[in-house]
Specification:
- The complex is a heterodimer of chains A (114) and B (112).
- Chain A has 114 residues and is mainly β.
- Chain A has no helices and eleven strands.
- In chain A, strands 2, 4, 5, 6, 9, 10 and 11 form a seven-stranded mixed β-sheet that branches. A four-stranded antiparallel β-sheet of chain A has the order 1-3-8-7, with no helix packed on it.
- Chain B is an all-beta fold.
- In chain B, strand 9 and strand 10 form a beta hairpin.
- The chains are: A mainly beta (114), B mainly beta (112).
- At the A-B interface, strand 5 and strand 10 of A face strand 4, strand 5 and strand 10 of B.
Chain lengths: 114, 112
């Protein structure tokens, strides 16, 4: 069974641009969560989607948004990029939202802002 | 808010020794815990989980211990190998909050 797939693996953008990251969950998983990982802040929760609906949101500005498609694939978008947005963005999938079940992570998209 | 922390940011062990990685959590309502391993350039990899109705769970070379009285979680790795070198995170989740909270991570260095 294929794991969580994130594309692209690396991305370089400049300030003010926008970016879209993609995540394909494990087959059969319907919940997708996004995290930002930085050396200083660790893993921070962005949002979670289930059945094309945002179920939970972290403390990030409105420049960060996401969506989920009917096949459970998800995208996140960051607009008006800032230098501080440089980070590893991780996607994790699970069978359903909530509950006592693990999330399985992809290898992330490394976003660098110049 | 909830917080999950680690006592030791870096742990160095000799190959073949046992490793113990610790984690403290602050929310007594948390009822599900996971340990993840993250190698350089990769995403976190699920190692083992435990529910709050248990105090111990064993996997292959790994054991997780949960002490709800003092809100402490530990990961024990038996016969540590060079391939175990990575950053280890604990994560907690409760029935009344819909997201995981992650610790800051402990880096495990295995010396040959």
């Amino acid at each position: 069974k294929a794991g969580v797939t994130q594309t692209p693996r690396y991305l370089i953008k400049t300030r003010g641009q926008q970016v879209t990251l993609s995540c394909s969950p494990i087959s059969g998983h319907r919940s997708v969560s996004w995290y930002q990982q930085t050396p200083g802040q660790g893993l921070q929760f962005l949002f979670e989607y289930f059945s094309e609906t945002q179920r939970n949101k972290g403390n990030f500005p409105g420049r960060f948004s996401g969506r989920q498609f009917s096949n459970s694939r998800s995208e996140m978008n960051v607009s008006t990029l800032e230098l501080g947005d440089s980070a590893l963005y991780l996607c994790a999938s699970s069978l359903y939202a909530g509950g006592n079940q693990p999330q399985h992570f992809g290898d992330g998209t490394r976003l660098s802002i110049l | 808010g909830e917080s999950v922390g680690l006592h030791l940011p870096t742990l160095s062990v000799q190959e073949g020794d046992n490793s113990i990685i610790n984690c403290a959590y602050s929310n007594s309502a948390s009822d599900y815990f996971i340990w993840y391993k993250q190698e350089s350039g990769k995403g976190p990899q699920f190692i083992i989980d435990i529910r709050s109705n248990m105090d111990k769970r064993q996997g292959q070379r790994v054991t997780v211990l949960l002490n709800k009285t003092v809100k402490h979680l530990s990961l024990q790795i038996a016969a540590t190998q060079p391939g175990d070198s990575a950053v280890y995170f604990c994560a907690e989740r409760g029935y009344n909050f819909n997201k995981f909270y992650f610790g800051s991570g402990t880096k495990l260095n295995v010396k040959p």
